[in-house]
């Protein structure tokens, strides 16, 4: 018997007719990003929601400007601005119920603030006096995650745990276009779909991962298409259309809450500012591209819709701007105060109880500080 | 005082029992990992748990270690107490980013607001004839990461007691299971398991006067065997089983070495950058004036873990340990 004949002899009987587990067609995103503003659908949107989104966008834009200014004054170590992406940041926060959880990345301090986190506490990480400045349980906002996409499996685990406990809780996790290349993105989406966890993944595709454009990041038709491979629906939305982002996210949240499982939402937007204040965007993109996106500004789009439909007058616009100025002035004033630092706190939270070794090291630092306070003479040397 | 009938039990049985008792005692305990359900794990450690507690409490996950630990972080954030199984030492590396960037830091990052009571079970070490990626001693990586407890049992009773303590801990614990000792037996009564062993405490496994062998996990039985063999040479060796690498029990180790005046650190992990360097430094800093000789290390060679047919040359054995003891600058009368 030849090797080939042998192979044939051991060939198993053909399996039953193979079928896909899920019909992929309903999972596919629309060909073009979903839009509401400037379309007939806008008339069906609750005017109160639109006005609420508008005031949050104006505040958000001012917050971004103020935080950027604080880097120039040396009050923030670094600030990754979400200017131009305010519609995504704000909609992600407003779409959730109080009992839900938000999982932001480092660019999403605005989403945390829109959910109720004190801006000073949201910016603590970037000021550098501690890592997470807020109690995550106070507003159910997970710590800002710096390692890309690593917070996504946390959102899945939390949502899964809530469902195991019988709680009606949805987790919304934020990530950028660059983050979709990370392994944790893949693992989180796969776990979420297998467990049918009540999670919404919001990808803000802002065009760049620092300097690397999307074309060098993925060969997928859209990032929303990635959902299909996991067996969850992918939705494509205009990320600068606050009403559309809110609508798509609200639908995904509702679906998750009703036991329908996770959704991947790709919001197409643009990072108007550089990656951070330390970045130079002129090295990798032209001003004409930025200008085109400025014409598609989220505040501009919403303001146009509201004023054309006479849902917003000059007074209301002025009131929104004044409210934003008040927020900025308060933020500026509080950020201009030096934070109170306690070096002893370095040892306080590493473990539930500090180890013997940490107690020794704390004593060492305390002795150094005492000597420093006593000055050269007090040190007795 | 009643006498308890002691029956022989394996370390594997004791670990299974600890998981079962923890699941029964606390509804927030959840076991998750690859093949931990119907199969009971590749080492059968979770045997019967899914059947007894249901698949929601003992869950077969997708094959993705970062995903397993990453979702466990989220579960812990929501008040659960996940116990994750990494199938083998070297298969735990994909989860390393979650270990270093989140598991170890979350309590500190949030000023204590968000502790993560997660137990990461990792079968580790060699000596079982495993092919590549199945025999690593990865403890040094975890030891170098502040915020983690790193624990490893060497006896059946400790396997039970330390795992119960690990699961009960509000801090993350890397629980390293010496897979070569899974089938080792001790007299232990599974009906009346010993009290929960404290984390962070070493134990003198064998008292002696001549020198201290400082060791842990799979090397403990080897050191006890070496101590027996050393009697023929006239050496009465003390064996300290660290049990916890983090936190490190300086007190027990220091007391022992001050008594004996000589020390050898023994482990399978590589010597360069391995735990032995840290331990030798700590001993020297604390016992310098008591020492009759430099602290020596018997460790795995500084090579990638060898193929199974060559591993016996790599692993610290009785002869290599006795050689090291012989180099502890004995006076002529020894």
UniProtKB/TrEMBL annotation, chain A:
> Can you give the residue ranges of the Dehydrogenase E1 component domain?
64-341
Source organism superkingdom: Bacteria
Listed A to Z, the keywords are:
Oxidoreductase, Pyruvate, Thiamine pyrophosphate
The record's section on Pfam families has: E1_dh
Per the record, which residues fall in region Disordered? Answer: 1-25
| This protein's record includes keyword Oxidoreductase | yes
Q: Which Gene3D superfamilies match?
A: 3.40.50.970
Q: Needs which cofactor? A: thiamine diphosphate
Task: State if Cell cycle is listed as a keyword.
Answer: no
What is the recorded name of this protein? Pyruvate dehydrogenase (Acetyl-transferring) E1 component subunit alpha
- What gene name is given for the protein in this entry? pdhA
TrEMBL record, chain B:
- For the keyword Coiled coil, the answer is no
> What is the superkingdom listed in this entry's lineage?
Bacteria
For this protein, what is the EC number?
A: 1.2.4.4
User: What CDD domains does the record point to?
Assistant: TPP_PYR_E1-PDHc-beta_like (cd07036)
Q: Where is the Transketolase-like pyrimidine-binding domain?
A: 9-184
In terms of SMART domains, this protein maps to: Transket_pyr (SM00861)
Q: Does the keyword Ribosomal protein apply?
A: no
Which top class of enzyme applies to this chain?
oxidoreductase
Q: Which residues cross the membrane?
A: none
Which cofactors does this protein require? thiamine diphosphate
Per UniProt, the keywords (alphabetical) are: Oxidoreductase
Q: PANTHER family, alphabetically?
A: 2-OXOISOVALERATE DEHYDROGENASE SUBUNIT BETA, MITOCHONDRIAL, 2-OXOISOVALERATE DEHYDROGENASE SUBUNIT BETA-RELATED
- This one is known as 3-methyl-2-oxobutanoate dehydrogenase (2-methylpropanoyl-transferring)
The species this protein was found in: Streptomyces macrolidinus
Taxonomy of the source species: Bacteria, Bacillati, Actinomycetota, Actinomycetes, Kitasatosporales
């Amino acid at each position: 018997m030849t090797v080939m004949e042998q192979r044939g002899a051991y060939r198993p009987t053909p399996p039953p007719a193979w079928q896909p587990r899920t019909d992929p067609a309903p999972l596919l995103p629309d060909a073009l990003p979903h839009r509401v503003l400037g379309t007939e659908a806008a008339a069906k949107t609750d005017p109160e929601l639109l006005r609420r989104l508008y005031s949050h966008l104006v505040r958000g834009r001012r917050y971004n400007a103020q935080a950027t200014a604080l880097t120039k004054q040396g009050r923030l170590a670094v600030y990754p601005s979400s200017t131009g992406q305010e519609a995504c940041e704000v909609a992600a926060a407003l779409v959730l119920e109080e009992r839900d959880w938000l999982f932001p990345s480092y660019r999403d301090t605005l989403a945390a603030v829109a959910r109720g986190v004190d801006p000073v506490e949201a910016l603590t990480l970037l000021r550098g006096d501690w890592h997470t400045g807020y109690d995550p349980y106070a507003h159910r906002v997970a710590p800002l995650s710096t390692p890309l996409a690593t917070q996504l499996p946390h959102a899945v685990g939390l949502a899964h745990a809530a469902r195991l406990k019988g709680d009606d809780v949805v987790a919304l996790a934020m990530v950028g276009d660059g983050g979709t290349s990370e392994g944790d993105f893949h693992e989180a989406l796969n776990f979420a779909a297998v467990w049918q966890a009540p999670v919404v993944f919001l990808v803000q595709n802002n065009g760049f991962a620092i300097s690397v454009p999307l074309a060098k990041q993925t060969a997928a038709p859209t990032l929303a298409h990635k959902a299909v491979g996991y067996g969850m629906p992918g939705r494509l939305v205009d990320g600068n259309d606050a009403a559309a982002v809110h609508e798509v996210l609200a639908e995904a949240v509702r679906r998750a809450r009703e036991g329908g499982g996770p959704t991947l939402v790709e919001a197409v937007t643009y990072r108007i500012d550089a990656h951070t204040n330390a970045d130079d965007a002129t090295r990798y993109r032209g001003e004409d591209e930025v200008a085109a996106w400025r014409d598609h500004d989220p505040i501009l789009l919403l303001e146009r819709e509201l004023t054309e439909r006479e849902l917003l007058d000059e007074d209301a616009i002025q009131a929104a701007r004044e409210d934003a100025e008040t927020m900025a002035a308060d933020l500026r004033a509080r950020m201009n105060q030096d934070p109170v630092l306690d070096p002893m706190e370095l040892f306080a939270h590493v473990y539930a109880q500090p180890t013997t070794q940490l107690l020794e090291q704390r004593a060492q630092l305390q002795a150094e500080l005492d000597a420093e306070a006593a000055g050269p003479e007090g040190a007795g040397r | 005082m009643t006498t308890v009938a002691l029956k022989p039990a394996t370390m594997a049985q004791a670990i299974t029992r600890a998981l079962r008792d923890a699941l029964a005692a606390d509804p927030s305990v959840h076991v998750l990992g690859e093949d931990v359900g119907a199969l009971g794990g590749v080492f059968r450690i979770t045997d019967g748990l899914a059947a007894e507690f249901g698949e929601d409490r003992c869950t077969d996950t997708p094959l993705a270690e970062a995903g397993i630990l990453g979702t466990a972080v989220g579960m812990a954030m929501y008040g659960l107490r996940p116990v994750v199984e990494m199938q083998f030492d070297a298969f735990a590396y994909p989860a390393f980013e979650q270990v270093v960037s989140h598991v170890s830091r979350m309590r500190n990052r949030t000023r204590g607001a968000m502790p993560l009571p997660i137990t990461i079970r990792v079968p580790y070490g060699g000596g079982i004839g495993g092919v590549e990626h199945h025999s690593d001693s990865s403890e040094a990586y975890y030891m170098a990461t502040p915020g983690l407890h790193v624990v490893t049992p060497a006896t059946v009773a400790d396997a039970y007691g330390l795992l119960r303590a690990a699961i009960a801990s509000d801090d993350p614990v890397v629980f390293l299971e010496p897979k070569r000792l899974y089938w080792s037996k001790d007299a232990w009564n599974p009906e009346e398991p010993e009290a929960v062993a404290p984390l962070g405490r070493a134990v003198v496994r064998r008292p002696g006067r001549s020198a201290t062998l400082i060791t842990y996990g799979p090397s403990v039985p080897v050191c006890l065997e070496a101590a027996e063999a050393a009697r023929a040479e006239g050496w009465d060796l003390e064996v300290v089983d660290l049990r916890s690498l983090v936190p490190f029990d300086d007190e027990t180790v220091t007391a022992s070495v001050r008594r004996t005046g000589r020390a050898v650190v023994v482990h399978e992990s590589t010597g360069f950058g391995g735990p032995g360097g840290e331990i030798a430094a700590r001993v020297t800093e604390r016992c310098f004036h008591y020492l009759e000789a430099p602290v020596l290390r018997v460790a795995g060679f500084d090579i990638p873990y060898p193929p199974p047919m060559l591993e016996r040359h790599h692993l610290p054995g009785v002869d290599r340990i006795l050689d090291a003891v012989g180099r502890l600058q004995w006076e002529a009368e020894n």
